[in-house]
TrEMBL record:
<dbReference type="Pfam" id="PF13520">
    <property type="entry name" value="AA_permease_2"/>
</dbReference>
<feature type="transmembrane region" description="Helical">
    <location>
        <begin position="269"/>
        <end position="288"/>
    </location>
</feature>
<dbReference type="GO" id="GO:0000064">
    <property type="term" value="F:L-ornithine transmembrane transporter activity"/>
</dbReference>
<feature type="transmembrane region" description="Helical">
    <location>
        <begin position="36"/>
        <end position="53"/>
    </location>
</feature>
<feature type="transmembrane region" description="Helical">
    <location>
        <begin position="325"/>
        <end position="351"/>
    </location>
</feature>
<dbReference type="GO" id="GO:0061459">
    <property type="term" value="F:L-arginine transmembrane transporter activity"/>
</dbReference>
<keyword id="KW-0812">Transmembrane</keyword>
<feature type="transmembrane region" description="Helical">
    <location>
        <begin position="543"/>
        <end position="562"/>
    </location>
</feature>
<protein>
    <submittedName>
        <fullName>High affinity cationic amino acid transporter 1</fullName>
    </submittedName>
</protein>
<dbReference type="GO" id="GO:0005886">
    <property type="term" value="C:plasma membrane"/>
</dbReference>
<dbReference type="GO" id="GO:0097638">
    <property type="term" value="P:L-arginine import across plasma membrane"/>
</dbReference>
<feature type="transmembrane region" description="Helical">
    <location>
        <begin position="478"/>
        <end position="500"/>
    </location>
</feature>
<feature type="transmembrane region" description="Helical">
    <location>
        <begin position="65"/>
        <end position="84"/>
    </location>
</feature>
<feature type="domain" description="Cationic amino acid transporter C-terminal">
    <location>
        <begin position="541"/>
        <end position="591"/>
    </location>
</feature>
<dbReference type="InterPro" id="IPR002293">
    <property type="entry name" value="AA/rel_permease1"/>
</dbReference>
<feature type="transmembrane region" description="Helical">
    <location>
        <begin position="164"/>
        <end position="181"/>
    </location>
</feature>
<keyword id="KW-0472">Membrane</keyword>
Length: 606
């Protein structure tokens, strides 16, 4: 029992960040708000416009891909606001990994960090693959045809041929990242500007060739396997499945949160940059997908017809072939910045995890001249390049979404926990017991309020009517339990919604009563959490309408996760098994927090 108790404590130990040392870093603080905004836009605005919009429209959503992008944008905005608060609260490299380490505990932090590695590796690989397809489309598919003929790969789940061009593109940008951060962001800012100009050109030029009948095709006008026609040919379920895939197009803004140790003023720059980048990216995606589906019927935008480059094909179809070259330039610049944005955070997450000792410490080595984590950058670039060469874009996109959605969910949970906590409750309980002298003044300060809560009924504790200025240890524990309960109810609620989504016609009274009962429990739980005392700590940015926005973010994230395929979940489970093996055989024993606890016990014993 003692071993089990200590083991659980090890999983829950939290990272402590000294506020007086928070600005210290071995990385180069050189990025402005403009640099971060360009980095966020550039990393997000790429594959979604030039590849994903046409693919989702043809396979799952039809013209309703515009709504799919809108729903995915809402999910991203909710998550983005939570990231922005944590960027202001914990401006350190590592993004959601550090945030969850500070609030939830080491084990969940490792899970999030490992998911972020998956997100950025697959993001890099899929963008590189899309980049290669676009370059190949400019030479009429010659490279692909030759590789398919001379070097075919007949393995299920892998690409039909090894894409050496994708590997070369990835490795070239890896070398650029090794050279230095400022040089990389200059390249990104210029290419992002070109990309936005091309997006503006597509929307304006495409508006002269739109046909609203393409949003209202009859069933007789579409092929047999292309749905029922109309604006939503694959139904509500198809539109929501499209939203789960379109969510992938918004992945990338969280690269801003990984620059906490390289931004000049992270508490101000990170929140502003996240909000700005998401706004610009949504407007671009919505405009492009609307014009694209109005210019060309959705069922003609399949990969087989467009050769992996649907947007240039659309303009060629309406008799404007010169636009193909303009769009291709925008595609190459957009995919370049998207690739850079996918690659940029990966070595920084590895650096952060290695600095904490939860993965191999060699990944934390910083080059004294370039001030970049060279080993982490090189290894991650080679790994991502290899995946780009061997896997197809479709096989990668959904798997990437799971890790990202889970990371976004944990950030939302962490926002709720911190907003309803206080400083005492954030201190490691195990060490807290041994340092009684330091904590006595703080304990006595809140002792009376804690006793007051202890003497009240459970109903009074849940629906708190006291106007306390600061949360106490007692209310913090109540709030944390409520957050965990709400999370569980949301999972059940979303699972039921997805299960019943295709059965709305045969929805029975019993099913309706169950859904209604769960919804009522959820509403009362949220009201109870909203009435709990909160932290009075002031930040440069705070999520508005807490707890509503973080809970809405969790609701959308869980829903989109349940919309992904079983095969995707199996692949994700394999990835997690590899990561957990690393943690339990290495990370849990070499963690900095484990050493800190041991030193604290030794000092208190002496």
């Amino acid at each position: 029992m003692i071993f089990l108790r200590n083991f659980i404590k090890s999983l829950l130990r939290r990272k402590r960040i000294d506020s007086s040392q928070i600005s210290n870093t071995r990385l180069d603080r050189c990025l402005t708000t403009l640099d971060l905004s360009a980095l966020g836009i550039g990393s997000t605005l790429g594959l979604g416009i030039y590849v994903l919009a046409g693919d989702v429209a043809s396979r799952t959503s039809g013209p309703a891909v515009t709504i799919s992008f809108f729903i995915a944008a809402i999910a991203s905005v909710f998550a983005g606001l939570c990231y922005a608060e944590f960027g202001a609260r914990v401006p350190k490299a590592g993004s959601a990994y550090v945030y969850s380490y500070v609030t939830v505990g080491e084990f969940m932090a490792f899970v999030i960090g490992w998911n972020l590695v998956l997100e950025y590796v697959i993001g890099t690989a899929s963008v590189a693959r899309g980049y290669s397809n676009y370059v190949d489309s400019l030479v009429n598919g010659t490279v692909q045809a030759n590789l398919r003929y001379y070097m075919p790969i007949d393995v299920p789940g892998l690409s039909a041929y090894p894409d050496f061009l994708a590997f070369l593109i990835t490795f070239s940008l890896t070398i650029m990242l090794v050279i230095g951060v400022k040089e990389s962001t200059r390249f990104n800012s210029v290419f992002t500007g070109i990309n936005l100009l091309v997006v503006l050109f597509v929307v304006i030029a495409g508006s002269f060739h739109i046909d609203f009948h393409n949003w209202n095709l009859s069933k007789d006008e579409v092929p047999e396997n292309a749905g029922k026609g109309g604006f939503m040919p694959y139904g509500f379920s198809g539109m929501m499945s499209g939203a789960a895939t379109c969510f992938y197009a918004f992945i990338g803004f969280d690269v801003i949160a990984t620059t906490g140790e390289e931004a000049k003023n992270p508490q101000r720059s990170i929140p502003i940059s996240i909000v700005l980048s998401l706004l610009f990216v949504f407007l671009a995606y919505f405009g492009i997908s609307a014009v694209q589906t109005l210019m060309l019927p959705y069922y003609l935008q399949t990969e087989e017809i467009t050769k992996g480059a649907p947007l240039p094909y659309v303009f060629e179809y309406v008799g404007w072939p010169v636009a193909k070259w303009i769009i291709s330039i925008g595609a190459l610049t957009g995919l370049s910045t998207s690739l850079l944005g996918a690659m940029f955070p990966l070595p920084r997450v590895l650096y952060s995890m290695a600095s904490d000792g939860v993965i191999f410490r060699s990944f934390a080595d910083i080059n004294p001249r370039t001030k970049t984590p060279i080993l982490a950058t090189l290894i991650s670039g080679i790994f991502a390049g290899a995946m780009a060469a061997l896997f197809d874009v479709k096989e990668l996109a959904d798997m990437m979404s799971i890790g990202t959605l889970l990371a976004y969910t944990l950030v939302s949970i962490s926002v709720l926990i911190l907003r309803f906590s206080h400083e005492i409750d954030n201190i490691d309980d195990d060490i807290n017991r041994n340092i009684t002298v330091e904590m006595k003044p703080l304990r006595s300060k809140y002792q009376n309020s804690d006793e007051k809560f202890d003497n009240r009924s459970w109903c009074a504790k849940l629906f708190n009517t006291d106007r306390m200025k600061e949360a106490s240890a007692q209310t913090s524990r109540i709030s944390t339990n409520l957050v965990m309960f709400i999370t569980t109810v949301l999972i059940i609620f979303d699972a039921l919604l997805v299960y019943l989504e295709d059965r709305l016609v045969e929805l029975e009274t019993n099913s309706f009563i169950i859904i209604l009962a769960i919804f009522i429990v959820l509403v009362f739980s949220i009201i109870s959490l909203a009435m709990q005392p909160r932290s009075t700590k002031k930040l440069s940015f705070q999520v508005p309408w807490v707890p509503l926005i973080p809970i809405l973010s969790m609701f959308v994230n869980f829903y989109l996760m349940f919309k992904l395929s079983t095969t995707t979940w199996i692949r994700f489970a394999i990835w997690m098994a590899i990561g957990l093996s690393i943690y339990f055989f290495y990370g849990i024993w070499h963690s900095n927090e484990r050493s800190r606890r041991y030193e604290a016990r030794q000092n208190s014993a002496n």
